[in-house]
Amino acid sequence: MRTSLVLLATLTTSLPACSVSGPREPAPALDPIPAAPAAAPAASPASAPGESPRAQPPAADASLGTWRSSACAPRRYERVISLAEDGSFTAEDRVSPCPPQVRCIWSGIIHRKGTFQRSGDTLSLSVADASHGPGGQPFPATLTVDPRTGALVETGGDGAPCPYER
């Protein structure tokens, strides 16, 4: 502690005073800093001779991701659809899932895989592979994007809209 006080006293006595007793001179005027030149737009990646230019990735699509639709007449079970950036989708119709800790012959879930294309507010679905099981309703060929909410909507078998949620 004594060493700290001695050091503090030494520093405060050896530093120049911070106050000025006489008149002050004005600070020198500073030259304004010139504006930086505008950056040139980034060049797209160059292609090797004989190679086609690289395609830019598509703009993000808000409809991508996983969507769930609860029971919606005449479908009495949840349907889950996952849309991927590469234009593929997977879907599950959870017709009658096997309860936990029970051994079932069938899982109770119909799995589908395929591709989709978006044109405006319509997604066209093309199923390439599907598991089979009893009780499933027909899979929709199209989904629409609700322009007000951005959510997916399936038209139910009775013509009523079946909304999906994230």
Topology of helices and strands:
Layout lengths: L1 H13 L50 E5 L8 E6 L4 E7 L15 E10 L2 E9 L11 E4 L6 E4 L5 E3 L3
Antiparallel strand pairs: 1-2, 2-3, 3-4, 4-5, 5-6, 6-7, 7-8
Protein name: Secreted protein
Keywords: Signal
Pick out its properties.
166 residues, mainly beta, Lipocalin, eight-stranded antiparallel beta sheet, 8 strands, 29% strand, disordered N terminus
Question: Your description of this structure?
Answer:
The protein has a domain of 99 residues: Lipocalin. The protein contains one helix and eight strands. An eight-stranded antiparallel sheet has the order 1-2-3-4-5-6-7-8, with no helix packed on it. Keywords: Signal. This is Secreted protein.
Taking all residues together, what is the mean pLDDT?
76
Helices, by number, come to 1
The H/E string reads HEEEEEEEE
The description of the largest β-sheet is: 8 strands, antiparallel
Strand order within the widest beta sheet = 1-2-3-4-5-6-7-8
- CATH topology assignment of the domain at 65-163: Lipocalin
Distance between the termini: 64 Å
Indicate the percent of residues in helices. under 10%
Uncertain stretches of 5 or more adjacent residues: 1-20, 32-48, 51-59
What overall form do the CA principal axes indicate?
globular
By CATH reckoning, the class of the domain at 65-163 would read Mainly Beta
Biased composition (Pro residues): 25-35
Signal peptide: 1-19
Organism: Sorangium cellulosum (Polyangium cellulosum)
Biased composition (Low complexity): 36-54
